[in-house]
Prior knowledge:
Layout: E1 2-3, H1 9-17, E2 22-26, H2 30-37, H3 44-50, H4 55-63, E3 71-77, E4 96-99, H5 102-112, H6 118-121, H7 123-137, E5 142-145, H8 146-151, H9 153-164, H10 170-174, H11 188-191, H12 193-197, H13 213-230
Parallel strand pairs: 1-3, 2-3, 4-5
Helix pairs in contact: 2-3, 5-13, 7-13
Protein name: Sulfotransferase family protein
InterPro entries: Class-IV_PLP-Dep_Aminotrnsfr, P-loop_NTPase
Organism: Seongchinamella unica
Amino acid sequence: MWSGPRNISTALxxxxxxxxxxxxxxxxxxxxxxxxxxLEHPCREExxxxxxRDYGKVIxxxxxxxxxxxxxxxxxxxxxxxRGLDMxxxxxxxxxxxxxxxxxxxxxxxxxxxxxxxxxxxxxxQAELFEQIADLSGEVPxxxxxxxxxxxxxxxxxxxxxxxxxxxxxxxxxxxxxGRRDSDGxxxxxxxxxxxxxxxxxxxxxxxxxxNAGQRELADRMRPYYLQLAKQRILP
Length: 236
């Protein structure tokens, strides 16, 4: 599942982990991304200690051995993947892209991080990876929109499972117990507070986010990339 930040990606990870046949991997390239960019993020030192900083070693971890469960769900952040990285390692995977309107992403992001730019939210990178993975895999990746999930999670997730050729565990994927998971990344203490209190997907609320001029310009610039993928999305 390829997402940017602030995009119900952790709630969706909860949904899949609550299935009886699925385990999850939470943002496995985060430490490599921080080491590569030198960026200061919350929990930076803890992340660098908790995960491999080497992209090649992370890829080996994701591909080398059997998975204990029938399914594995990888929550991947598009901005963690540097341009030029050979993506052949995931050519045989099934791929889905989780998108969200850029203005909503930016409004949510700046609540946690004061500075935002194109690279931080990964929307352009998401469109690039979509094209790259489509070429590698020989099929058009699936796309779901976070707003569509919130409007009708049962409909969107049922259709997603159908297209993946797997059973839709309705009760498990729409409801989960509160609390932190052992599978959560070490960064959960900063980013996951709301999800830890949740027992399911939150209600859909369509509000125009308040952005300053620079943030609005960024949202407008990223919107064509969002729309490029939105044309492919599963409708609620």
